[in-house]
Design goal:
This protein is α+β, with helices and mostly antiparallel strands. It contains 28 helices and 49 strands. The protein starts with a helix and ends in a 27-residue tail after the last helix. Pfam families: Bac_rhamnosid6H, Bac_rhamnosid_N, Ig_Rha78A_N.
């Protein structure tokens, strides 16, 4: 026993020493780090910083005492233990003496010198930030400059990549630094109430902005204390710079101080931005790898070798180039700041001395028409200026600029194209004010290029990485990795021989002017006639021109979430299927690299690599997809086929096998389906340790839930998925007790997240394009989810740039000639799609109050209105619509209309309705900025068109508001016309009543019939009983419902749901949202959906399964099911409308809640039924209470509207909190509890699986995270002790339909004696509702609101 005890004692002693040293080291680090922070921290926080440092040493003492006790009790190493603890305590006493002395000195320094708060740690969602200092009730949070936040680190950032041994020890201070130009700077912030504040103090009475140079330097601008009288309606919408013009290259920090209603102040933490150049202030040129440039020059040998073949020329520009330059750092005096300004086409990632400057990259710069406008980034590289030299590196991808020249549903050939090119300059500002510009891209600054490790990069087909090149070129962007330039043999051009051969770059050259390119596109779009164009001489250099440089207008595309696999399945043959439990856009990250591959007997489809196999090279492939192919269990590549190029797949071969393989420049290893695929390759004779270098693809994104990795003996370890999207803050959320409704919300939000890749796209795999119709339909939902202020401003700019000279707007923000046939001609996109920039301009102002955007965009919108006035009527006649619609009986004649509806689409109405909306939008914007003539013109035009629609759609006397000679079954007639105030007020109720006559129908879809044929008889009988199956002819068919599901297209979803809820039939809207069977969110989730589908019917070979196009439903959930939305006539997100509405029966919904961010701060609502009986059979007959809680942030306001009470016995009271409780704690705790519920998968609980052996469908019961219901933070138990003030009766509001004005604060409404009742039945799932359309008299109390049924010029909500 003695030897064993001795070893134990020795081990204990060694462990203790190591642990003690670790604690001791941490204490020293904590002391010096926090002591250093004091020099830049407010006096008010000094005590906190010092206290936390001292606590570190106190903890040492406590831990040591516990360890001493334990080891002494064990009888081990008594003497040694005592001695060691004594030493630790002595050292701690000495350090405590030092810190007390430092504290006294620092407090004295701080008290006698004005200093600043340290830089804020910015979060991506609208996360509450601590105050920089002060006693005021209002905390300024989420500081932005030109709508842009600093992003310290992307929330889902992967582990730091491998940094070469010769790399710098310094790191970039942030992932994204906003850059502004000297004459365009505007400050904004949001508000949060301090815990313990009083409601009367939650008004801003004054503000002060202070701007200083970086790291707490000298004062640049002090706005002074500016009084604001918010109680009189004055609101701050944005504060423009009003100081001395800042200097290009400066990095500035700023804070804002707010004074509350009692005159107490609170100062924000610091934010930060850089000052960049205007286009004309840029130095240097766009630079290119010389042989890349030659592929665009008809006079070169390289071009001749490509045989004038665009695909061959594209391959000659692969592998993609790396760029670098070496900059000596002159330390004349102390360096105040160093700002690197850089851009690159297609996409780029910048590094300095071997260290990447950001985790962004897949689409950087953001997607625009690069021939007109290219965005640049700014990076604070001040820390790297401590190195004697800087090597600036640029890794390049293809992006939207030099993509593989294959074309399908989208037409990349119409986009501007050129070789990979970079432009950069570094501005160093010294403490004495001297400014030096270095590292400019031109012939005289030593910029080099070489081909690197990325063999191919494409947004649609994926990326191929040579791991051996990656390994052998490690350190290429460091000083020690620098080599002199060499000379290439252009006569025998082989790009693979140019790998790691550094050559001098050459300037970008083109003979094509922007005017020539625009004219060429205009003629092709029929926006001008060829004979009207100018003659441009032919030139040899045919690359497209590069547009003007502007600072980043939006946050970059970044990794916002890092997701571990939920399951890993062995598919055999070395193939592994990773399931990440939800679909999103991004790629895999291999934290530990990948194992060496094995060679299977045969490669699974699309996992082969013919050239590598012929060479004997090793490779690993990754295939990405959203769903599994039902007959094979493999990833369904067809549904994510880039550009729609596929042969139909193994079950639905729509073309002869491999027919798409002949498509121009189609990748040979994709097996007839253009696939989302990444490849990691190591040449035959290379070092196999290179496989450990694999990390991720960088310049592509894939839409996937599933990823197949092939072929390895064991699955790779440390695999995570990175979710990428534009890094706008997330600020909206919804919850409810109904898992189907909550799950539907998540379907839409997940799809929206997937489609925010610098543009709001239709699908994140097949097309990736910004369609106007999708924006019109879905922007209300996106605005509820996220702060879209910068994103939609950029989107509007995209459309303004794309506008043709004749005034026509296009269908997509970068013209793609996709559905122009559906418009009125002359270059215009389909009228709804082309109206997107006007509708977005209005919605942007309603949410963010940016009057400058209206002033810039209104002249363009007036040109569009002029275009419509000139061409619309004749264009519609050319499309065979007669003026009186006498021959219009079977839509659509032309147009997309209410796209992907399950009933007939009335395209005349959508064309004409959005012509009306264009007039309204112009009137709205002109009203805001005081253009009376244009306001009057827009109003008169809109009224004229509205009256025409009403006359034509009511002339048959049927009052169903459908086309005069139609079947009263088209969309979006009554829905759009009721919501948008087209129906005359006196006809409102009868049109509403007749709407309930509409019925659903059976659906003849192939997949649905095949599903029914493969159901068990038991399941089939259950569906027949529930009405989900009805007879269509002699066979059973699924059906779509009008009132228990959806049939509407992308626009009428919003119109129908909002109309029902706003006009007294919220119970019907809830029934639609909670419906089961085909054409419901339930149907999608039962087929394992985690994102919204493109269509309400199931598709295995065509329609996307990641498509937010039908997602307007999500905005209804927040605004109606929970009850918070922008007040229709507000601007700048100042005022909300709280309008909670309830189901007839608690069986449908027992509670709901929503958080809604705005430019003012975060609003929130939660309601729940209380005193529900234990017996759920009484949920449609009991009398219950309802508790509602409402939160209004400082500087905000709201109107409360209660639902109409059917019973006169119901009463309502309102009170507010005397002081605000700790809402941040309640929110954090509620979020933790919700995350735990989601981890336990307490949401939607089943799905249909296909048994490939029996070829039958069966229902699998298994819990899912999607749809998990969570309680609102407003009902968290920690708020139960809130001190509420005196109650006021608002019972009258249950009957008079008037609103109650609410100022900032926390409120509670209690309604008692609220009777529940049974929901209306109608005539079955696909039937109508005779209880409503056969009712005598008015069927809704809201029918009496006819006097308010004309559209008002300041109503942004009902504009269309």
């Amino acid at each position: 026993m003695a030897p064993s005890r001795s070893r134990s004692s020795s081990n204990n002693s060694a462990c203790l020493k190591i642990f003690g040293l670790a604690i001791f080291g941490f204490a020293i680090f904590s002391f010096y780090y926090q002591n250093a922070q004091l020099k830049d921290h407010y006096v008010t926080n000094t005590a906190n910083v010092l206290e936390s440092s001292k606590n570190a040493f106190i903890n040492v003492e406590k831990i040591a005492a516990k360890m001493e006790k334990k080891w002494l009790e064990d009888g081990t190493a008594e003497k040694e233990m005592k001695e060691y603890v004594a030493v630790m305590k002595k050292d701690e006493d000495e350090l405590r003496t030092h810190i007390d002395a430092a504290a006294a000195k620092k407090t004295s320094e701080v008290a006698n010198k004005p200093v600043e708060a340290p830089p804020a740690s910015k979060q991506m969602a609208a996360v509450q930030s601590p105050s920089g200092g002060g006693k005021g009730s209002i905390i300024p949070i989420d500081l932005t400059v030109n709508f842009l936040h600093v992003i310290d680190k992307a929330p889902g950032a992967p582990p730091e990549p491998i940094i070469p041994a010769s790399g710098s020890k310094y790191r970039s201070p942030e992932d994204f630094l906003p850059i502004v130009t000297p004459h365009h700077i505007e400050f904004r912030w949001r508000h949060e109430a301090h815990t313990g504040s009083k409601p009367d103090d939650l008004f801003v009475t004054a503000y002060q902005i202070v701007v200083k140079t970086n790291n707490g330097g000298s004062l640049v601008w002090d706005s002074g204390k500016k009084p604001v009288d918010e109680k009189e309606g004055v609101r701050i919408k944005g504060v423009p710079w009003d100081g001395p013009t800042p200097t290009v290259g400066q990095i500035l920090q700023w804070s804002v101080t707010l004074w509350d209603g009692s005159g107490n102040e609170n100062t924000s933490l610091l934010s930060k931005f850089g000052v960049g150049p205007e286009q004309e202030e840029w130095k240097g040129k766009w630079m290119v790898h010389p042989t890349d440039m030659d592929t665009f020059d008809k006079g070169t040998e390289t071009y001749a070798q490509s045989r004038s073949n665009e695909c061959d020329a594209w391959k000659r520009r692969r592998p993609l180039p790396l760029f670098r330059t070496k900059v000596p750092i002159e330390k004349k005096t102390a360096i105040a700041s160093a700002l690197l300004l850089v851009s690159g086409l297609g996409s780029f990632r910048a590094s300095v001395n071997g260290v990447p400057l950001s985790t962004s990259g897949p689409i950087d710069p953001p997607f625009t028409d690069y021939s007109k406008r290219v965005m640049y980034r700014g990076f604070d590289v001040t820390p790297f200026a401590q190195d004697p030299e800087m090597v600036i590196g640029m890794t390049m991808g293809s992006g939207w600029w030099d993509h593989r020249p294959v074309s399908g549903m989208a037409k990349p050939a119409l986009l501007p194209r050129g070789p990979a090119t970079v432009r950069a300059q570094m501005v160093i500002t010294y403490e004495d004010g001297e400014v030096v510009i270095m590292g400019t891209t031109d012939e005289n600054n030593g910029w080099q290029a070489a081909r690197g490790h990325i063999r191919e990069s494409d947004l649609f087909t994926g990326e191929m990485v040579d791991l051996d090149v990656l390994s052998t070129m490690e350190g290429w962007d460091t000083v020690s990795g620098w080599t002199d330039s060499t000379i290439l043999d252009k006569d025998n051009h082989d790009p693979y021989k140019e790998i790691n051969k550094w050559v001098e770059t050459v300037p970008y050259r083109t003979d094509v002017t922007l005017e020539e390119r625009v004219q060429r596109m205009s003629i092709r779009a029929k926006a001008m006639k060829a004979e009207e164009g100018k003659h441009f001489p032919d030139g040899n250099n045919f690359a497209d021109p590069v547009g003007k440089l502007v600072p980043h207008e939006i946050p970059p595309v970044m990794s916002m979430e890092r997701i571990a696999p939920d399951e890993i399945h062995d598919l055999g043959g070395g193939r592994w299927l990773f399931d990440f439990s939800k679909a999103f856009s991004g790629m895999l990250h291999f934290d530990e690299g990948v194992p060496e591959p094995i060679v299977p007997d045969s490669y699974p489809r699309a996992h082969g690599f013919k050239q590598a196999r012929a060479n004997g090279d090793g490779f690993i492939t990754v295939i990405y997809g959203e769903s599994l192919e039902m007959t094979t269990g493999d990833i369904n590549r067809v549904l994510v086929a880039g550009l729609g190029l596929h042969d139909g797949g193994p079950r639905h071969v729509s073309k002869s096998a491999g027919a798409t393989a002949h498509a121009f420049c189609f990748p040979e290893d994709h097996d007839a389906i253009l696939s989302q695929r990444d490849v990691y390759v190591v040449p035959k004779d290379a070092n196999k340790s290179s496989y450990t270098k694999a990390r991720q693809s960088h310049f592509t994104t894939h839409s996937f839930r599933f990823a197949e990795i092939c072929c390895t003996k064991e699955p790779p370890k440390g695999v995570h998925a990175l979710l990428y999207r534009t890094a706008v803050p997330e600020w909206g959320n919804f919850d409810s007790s109904n898992v189907v409704i909550k799950g539907g919300y998540e379907l839409i939000k997940n799809a929206m997240v997937s489609n925010m890749l610098s543009v709001q796209s239709d699908c994140p795999h097949r097309e990736k394009l910004p369609y106007g119709g999708d924006l019109v339909a879905d922007s209300p939902a996106a605005l509820a989810f996220f702060d879209m202020s910068s994103f939609y401003k950029k989107t509007i700019y995209d459309w303004l740039e794309a506008q043709w000279a004749n005034g026509a707007y296009t269908e997509t923000s970068v013209w793609q000639d996709l559905n122009d046939y559906a418009g009125i001609g002359y270059g215009a996109g389909e009228t709804v799609w082309a109206s997107a920039p006007l509708v977005l301009s209005v919605r942007h102002y309603q949410n963010y109050g940016d009057e400058g955007l209206l002033r810039k965009s209104l002249p363009h919108h007036i040109k569009w209105l002029d275009f419509l006035a000139k061409y619309f009527d004749d264009g519609m006649r050319e499309k065979k619509y007669d003026d009186e619609l006498e021959t219009y009986t079977s839509p659509p004649l032309s147009g997309l209309g209410d796209w992907l509806a399950m009933r007939g689409r009335d395209t005349w109405l959508t064309h004409t309705g959005f012509y009306m909306a264009s007039g309204r939008c112009v009137a709205y914007m002109a009203h805001v900025i005081g253009k009376a003539d244009e306001e009057e013109r827009g109003m008169e035009l809109a009224k004229k068109i509205r009256d025409r629609i009403a006359r034509l759609y009511l002339k048959n006397g049927k009052d169903n508001f459908d086309l005069p000679h139609g079947s009263a079954s088209n969309t979006p007639g009554p829905e759009m016309s009721l919501f948008s105030r087209i129906v005359p007020g006196e006809k409102r109720c009868i049109v509403l009543k007749n709407w309930f006559k509409r019925e659903g129908h059976t659906w003849p879809g192939d997949e649905e019939f095949r599903f029914i044929d493969a159901m068990s008889e038991e399941d089939k009988q259950e569906w027949i009983k529930s009405g989900e199956l009805t007879k269509r002819g002699d066979r059973w068919a699924m059906g779509w419902s009008q009132w228990q599901g959806f049939n509407e297209g992308i626009f009428a979803i919003r119109y129908s749901m909002k109309t029902l809820s706003e006009m007294g039939f919220h119970n019907v809207a809830l029934r639609k949202a909670a419906g089961t069977g085909m054409a419901t969110p339930e149907y999608m989730m039962s087929h394992n959906a985690t994102t919204m589908w493109e269509s309400f019917w199931r598709s295995e070979d065509l329609y996307s399964r990641n498509h937010p196009m039908l997602g307007a439903l999500a905005e209804w959930m927040s605004s109606s099911a929970a009850g918070v939305s922008l007040f229709p006539k507000t601007s700048g997100g100042r005022k909300m409308l709280f309008w909670p509405q309830f189901p007839h029966s608690a069986a449908t919904l027992k509670y709901a809640s929503a958080e809604q961010g705005s430019a003012r701060g975060d609003f929130a609502i939660a309601w729940r039924f209380e005193n529900l009986p234990e017996d759920e059979s009484q949920y449609d007959s009991a009398v219950v209470s309802i508790r509602i809680r409402l939160l209004i942030p400082p500087s905000g306001e709201a109107e409360l509207r209660l639902p109409f009470a059917q019973s006169s016995s119901a009463t309502a009271t309102l009170h507010n909190s005397i002081v605000l409780p700790d809402l941040s704690h309640a929110r954090a705790e509620a979020r933790k509890e919700c995350e735990e519920r989601r981890r336990k998968k307490m949401g939607f609980h089943y799905n249909w699986d296909y048994n490939r052996e029996t070829q039958k469908w069966f229902k699998r019961l298994n819990g899912k995270a999607i749809g998990t219901s969570c309680d609102s933070f407003l009902f968290h138990p920690s708020l139960d002790k809130t001190d509420w003030g005196k109650s006021t009766s608002i019972t009258a509001r249950l009957q008079d339909r008037e609103t109650e004005y609410l100022s900032p604060g926390l409120y509670e409404v209690i309604i008692v004696d609220w009777p529940l009742e049974k929901e209306v039945e109608g005539t079955g799932r696909i039937g109508n509702i005779p209880e409503y359309y056969k009712a005598d008299g008015e069927i809704s109390p809201y029918c009496q609101d006819n006097q308010d049924f004309d559209w008002a010029v300041d109503d942004a909500t009902h504009i269309i």
